[in-house]
Amino acid sequence: MALNRAEVHNMAAGPSPLPTSVLQQAAKGLLNYNGTGMGVCELSHRGKEFKGIVEKAEADLRELLQIPDSHAVLFTQGGGTTQFSSVFLNMLAYHRLKSKDVPAEQYSPPTVDYIVTGAWSSKASAEAKRLAVPPTPNAQALANVHIAATTKPTKFNRVPRKEEYNFTNDAAYVYYCENETINGVQFAGDVDSPAAVPFDLIPNDVPIVADYSSSFISRPIPHIERHALIYAGAQKNLGPAGVVVVIVRKDLLVDTNEAALLGGVPVCPIELEYKILADNGSLYNTPPVFSIYVSQLVLRYLIEEKGGMAGVKETNEKKAKLLYAALEEAERKGLVRLTVSDREARSWMNVTWVIDEADGDEESSREKRFLKGAEAQGFRQIKGHRSVGGIRASIYNAVSLESVQELVNYIKNWAAAEKWM
Amino acid sequence: MALNRAEVHNMAAGPSPLPTSVLQQAAKGLLNYNGTGMGVCELSHRGKEFKGIVEKAEADLRELLQIPDSHAVLFTQGGGTTQFSSVFLNMLAYHRLKSKDVPAEQYSPPTVDYIVTGAWSSKASAEAKRLAVPPTPNAQALANVHIAATTKPTKFNRVPRKEEYNFTNDAAYVYYCENETINGVQFAGDVDSPAAVPFDLIPNDVPIVADYSSSFISRPIPHIERHALIYAGAQKNLGPAGVVVVIVRKDLLVDTNEAALLGGVPVCPIELEYKILADNGSLYNTPPVFSIYVSQLVLRYLIEEKGGMAGVKETNEKKAKLLYAALEEAERKGLVRLTVSDREARSWMNVTWVIDEADGDEESSREKRFLKGAEAQGFRQIKGHRSVGGIRASIYNAVSLESVQELVNYIKNWAAAEKWM
């Protein structure tokens, strides 16, 4: 049975829904961009049309997130996973160049601090360890990868408490993932919350790196100016998979080959070096034109039709409150368990809960009934990530308040029915 | 003035035109894929719909190019430029693992052989040199980058002659670029041509790596089975920019971290490691879904509507012959100069010539008149690359024989008019 867009509530964790009006515009641009007789994917990336798209995307992003002039905005490829490597290699080069006068044999590899709050920050720290292999078996590792705090022992059910952080004074950088898509745990947007990123505990001159992939442009970024680097894969709130935005302090744009020639740090593959991208206005080689184009349309749409970052934040907060309230009610009845125990660290984007655990009956489990019923009501892609199970409703920017209200109604009806089973 | 697609002849060098019927289908899929009520960019890459797209794309590509079972087909990101680095890092790891028992202090870095025939192979060899920086200033470079032949002294106006090649017996690999997009020079498709890739001169056990970005699926790949690795960026003949196809011999899929632990070679960033991609069916992280989707539609279209590889080759050969014949005629009249002097090495995809050189008058130059007239007739994006100047007509798969015929007519009329000026 063929369905139309209005009949489904797509709550996928990523790739995720995009606004219908944006997709309609993109479909036109695909065949004919601005009356050029050529589609947007058929234009030279060096021509004035495409350069205009990149410039507009950057300007709108700067406006939405209040990005300071001290930072460059780059569009690149390879997904967030490639950034795990880029961050490590570029930050190591930056650190090496700060001590240019130290000869190779006297240079001691730095420590890099990771805050681990879920699957993605775990992967990021694992990649740092993987890349830190010493050049010869008896030499020192290229960096000491230090876990500054982790909530793994409690299955990532919260962010660390202030007293659990253990930062290194002269770390090459501190890394965190603002929103953990799989685990549904997010640092609080309010900087005064105990679940906020612990900016006050991080030594002043240590660069801060953040993965914002799954919460990008869903609300303002607290202390954006304090970050050395923020990156985000597009495929949650911004546009089609294939483009990554990097916001990076300009003094961090370094020649990794120059650093490697000093000894003690590896060269970064050219396409992964931020300086190369910045020097070429994100057009060092052919960029992912369609993903950038749709992202630009989404940014414009947020400014023109959604009230900018303030409007988007307000709607997202309402959506999250509504859904968590319904789930908390079901939790009190013993029907579900919210996997993030600390309310202030519950994600506004990925709402995760389990059902079976409260039931125990595998065959005719509540979870199966829940999912089957949800499917029939048009909810899509709400099964939890294969690594953690359960249910996950991802309520990114393009998921409307009405869709969330429908889910809340569904949960309430389901809970009422379950009580009598 | 708004133009429609039928009014322009888009001869861009890349991103390049795509078949209109494919774009129409893609525009529908963008809003609603197969009646799911969700667009193709909004589907989970781990769901059955998207996995189906990847599987179909691979199957069609295997059929079109007769890819042997010994080789894996991967879809990745980062453009051809990222492959410059990936090739070097993965091939070095492969070479290191072949001599697992050699301790780090006895391991000597290998030579890598590059055939340089234009801008892209120059860049590829430069990246190998850039990455080969020794781990400490007094150590050996990670590899000796050797130019096995180059036509740079004659401004890349041909491919090397047989006697000009100087291959290394135990090279870690030999690298070539089959078609140089900027310079309009291509190895001959006929293996018996003196302008063919010199397979007979390359030692049997030396792996061969080829960049096929701008001639991919334009005709069969000679000796495909002899290649260790072939890669191609999509944005010429295959689909929208953002995806790269890698065809790689399965025994070359190695763990670069394992190799680095032996000492003497660096670790490859995880997303650039072929083994990781292969182990995860190209879905290690979120792939560029839209680019893969459109590529799959293009492959189907070539099989169903263009007579497969044989049909495509026949049309491309006709197009090239027609255009070169017209240009040769103008050359005999002293109006143009074809930049590739060796007929057998003239690209079927990127046809390059200069006009001003034959004229000399900068202000009212023939080249300007040519370009202005061409623009008025609907020809688009035919200015030569900024690094070489002149004219470049890129006549990829999606440029019809009729469009090429129109260009030929235009050239003839222009040449007739120029004679009287």
From TrEMBL, chains A, B:
Aminotransferase class V domain span: 10-407
Family the UniProt entry places it in: Belongs to the class-V pyridoxal-phosphate-dependent aminotransferase family. SerC subfamily.
InterPro entries registered for this protein in UniProt: Aminotrans_V_dom, Pser_aminoTfrase, PyrdxlP-dep_Trfase, PyrdxlP-dep_Trfase_major, PyrdxlP-dep_Trfase_small
Cofactor: pyridoxal 5'-phosphate
Pathways involved: Amino-acid biosynthesis; L-serine biosynthesis; L-serine from 3-phospho-D-glycerate: step 2/3
HAMAP family reported in the protein's UniProt record: SerC_aminotrans_5
Protein name: phosphoserine transaminase
Classification via PANTHER family: PHOSPHOSERINE AMINOTRANSFERASE
Recorded catalytic activity of this chain's protein: 4-(phosphooxy)-L-threonine + 2-oxoglutarate = (R)-3-hydroxy-2-oxo-4-phosphooxybutanoate + L-glutamate; O-phospho-L-serine + 2-oxoglutarate = 3-phosphooxypyruvate + L-glutamate
TM ranges: none
Pfam families listed in its UniProt record: Aminotran_5
Keywords: Amino-acid biosynthesis, Aminotransferase, Pyridoxal phosphate, Serine biosynthesis, Transferase
Gene Ontology CC terms: cytoplasm
EC id: 2.6.1.52
Gene Ontology molecular function terms on file: O-phospho-L-serine:2-oxoglutarate aminotransferase activity; pyridoxal phosphate binding
Source organism of the structure: Filobasidium floriforme
One of the GO biological process terms: L-serine biosynthetic process
